[in-house]
Recover the amino acids of this structure.
């Protein structure tokens, strides 16, 4: 029997274990509902002016908008929510030097919205699956999520059944939640947006984290150019790409792109190593071997 929640007092390690066991978890009452409602208020006008999506995957009765960190001052507290951020690092950290933000997106499902095709988000990346997790998704409801209004549908345990493209709908469950709770699921977990059979919109936010060496779903540098990101706290700026993934990946003129967040970045820069400890150790070993040979 799969569990939706084991209580908000549990540690990140316990939640990570639950995610690894069943592919998802729901953490109830993680933030005050008023914070979710405040984020919703900030996004209402943007969603109202956003055209409906085009295509069977996104759904033609849905509206989606990204770049939430510049849409609302409340978005950062969801991206950096301490327990979720620690869980993301525990799930993804073993496979990268640092994690990054994959996307922030608000989704408004209008009445009549059809269910999405079931899918696994890690299929964004054309690489062999099963050896590591590529991604962790977090769905924050801004209105109540019910089985009738399009709550995210999850196939528990599907992260262990990667050879099965489709799994019997009878094995799925609707992630019913109220604002303040959060659904976490792995990039390898089969899921879809549900159908909205009610007369009201269902609104939620997806915040997704992925391995730091992958190309993210949302182009973070275009979403948050230096003139925007320099107003972020350092942890958030790093998460949207203003950091290097050792060794030297994602650099600007041989240095961390965080240098562009200065008010007066230097015009001329010299390259500076950004190496992982094992690379430093290997180079030192080569030096010592060279010295012994010379002697």
């Amino acid at each position: 029997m799969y569990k939706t929640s084991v209580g908000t007092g549990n540690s990140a390690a316990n939640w990570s274990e639950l995610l690894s066991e069943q592919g998802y978890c729901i953490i109830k009452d993680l933030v005050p509902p008023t914070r979710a409602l405040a984020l919703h208020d900030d996004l209402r006008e943007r969603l109202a002016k956003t055209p409906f999506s085009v295509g069977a995957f996104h759904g033609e009765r849905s509206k989606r908008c990204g770049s939430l960190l510049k849409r609302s001052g409340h978005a950062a507290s969801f991206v950096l929510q301490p327990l979720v951020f620690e869980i993301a690092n525990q799930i993804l950290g073993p496979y990268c030097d640092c994690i990054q933000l994959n996307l922030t997106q608000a989704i408004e499902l209008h009445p009549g919205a059809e269910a999405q095709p079931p899918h696994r988000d890690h299929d964004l990346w054309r690489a062999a699956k099963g050896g590591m997790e590529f991604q962790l998704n977090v769905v924050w409801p801004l209105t109540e999520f019910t089985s009738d209004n399009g709550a995210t549908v999850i196939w528990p345990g599907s992260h262990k059944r990667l050879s099965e493209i489709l799994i019997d709908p009878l094995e799925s469950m609707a992630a019913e939640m109220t604002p303040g709770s959060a659904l976490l699921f792995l990039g390898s977990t089969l899921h879809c947006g549900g159908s909205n059979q009610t007369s009201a919109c269902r609104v939620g936010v997806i915040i997704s984290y992925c391995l730091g060496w992958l190309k993210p779903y949302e182009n973070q540098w275009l979403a948050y150019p230096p003139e925007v990101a320099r107003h972020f706290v350092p942890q958030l700026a790093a998460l949207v790409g203003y950091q290097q993934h050792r060794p030297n990946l994602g650099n600007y003129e041989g240095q961390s792109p965080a240098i562009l967040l200065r008010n007066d970045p230097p015009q001329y820069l010299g390259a500076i190593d950004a190496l992982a400890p094992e690379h430093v150790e290997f180079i030192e070993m080569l030096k010592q071997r060279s010295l012994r040979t010379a002697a």
About this structure: The chain has two domains: 12-239, 257-294.
